Automatic annotation (TrEMBL):
InterPro entries: Ureohydrolase_dom_sf
Protein name: Uncharacterized protein
Amino acid sequence: MSLDFLNPVHELAVAHAMLQPPATLGQTIKIHTEQDGMPDLHNVDLVIIGLLENRKDNNALIQVKTLDHIRRKLYELYPGNWTSTIADLGDVFPGETVEDTYFVVRQLTEFFS
């Protein structure tokens, strides 16, 4: 499975992560960036993938364009009592159809299983 469907985390969210104190998730999480590309996934225990698909959500008022607001809050958090390595691999953009998006998510899920 190619990871080409994963779009890097927006630079503003990456910059916010870099501004966080040393022990926060923003400083410890591996991030897929435009500049550095995909991080080394060796020994990663948990991957985060943003899904910008909400066409079948009956409560959605607008199409999701970014998840940066969630990432900013995540990156500000301090880790709990765990030793897991986390990687934020960016976002999957909506496919031509919802089924196309679901196919990509299924492929990524199988790849990381």
